[in-house]
UniProtKB/TrEMBL annotation:
This is DUF3388 domain-containing protein. It comes from the Bacteria. Residues 8-83 form the ACT domain. It comes from Oceanobacillus luteolus. InterPro entries: ACT-like_dom_sf, ACT_dom, DUF3388, UCP021288_ACT. Pfam families: DUF3388 (PF11868).
Amino acid sequence: MERTEWYLEYENQINRPGLLGDISSLLGMLSINIITINGLENSRRCLLLLSEHDENIKRLESILETVDIIKVLKIRKPKLKDRMAVRHGKYIHTDNDDRKTVRFVRNELGILVDFMAELFKQDGHKLIGVRGMPRVGKTESIVAASVSANKRWLFVSSTMIKQTVRNKLIAGEYNTDNIFIIDGVVSKKRANEEHWRLIREVMHLPAVKVVEHPDIFVQATEYTLDDFDYIIELRSHEDEEITYDSIESQSLSQNSGFNMFDF
């Protein structure tokens, strides 16, 4: 029988020595293997488990419900954010009103890169938006995640080096294994019809597309924010406000030697 991964997260009600050992022994008696374990905030622990029989997981859950020294918070098939919690020992924060919006601050760039790399490894169409003020690390994180995922990245529009707008791609660049990066501000303010024709071609590819400033991008296209699979917000600090007036003015004032690349 194929082994199945499970995610377990619990909170210590009584933090006594040997508690983790007792839980490990219980898992062993149920023939459940521990793949990874890590600590979380507020006296919590998270584990990635491997079991051949789902019935054993149900038995584990029933037993743990009778134990008063821990409180089981989650026991389920692991989601991507669960894997990130086990790997980094830290939660990925989502918007309370929009669960597909994921929030990071600059000192969490390592987790952000790892998170995006896992998204980039998935096959097929995926549309990801990235919000953030200038110079917070958006483009660098996207490129680093592409490298981590062993994917080639292509700028359709960008301010990474100089303001760049592509009108065409060469044959090999239409590879659906590539990561296509679009800057919504640059495309809206600097692009011509040929560029928008290219964007429509790219958007129809079964590949990963990453759009910086998605709110600006949807103003100039037929797409809406509902079309995005994830919206990632990156801030310098928790209380930073992302304001688009300053983003548009700063993006268009950078690199006055603007180049239109027509391949």
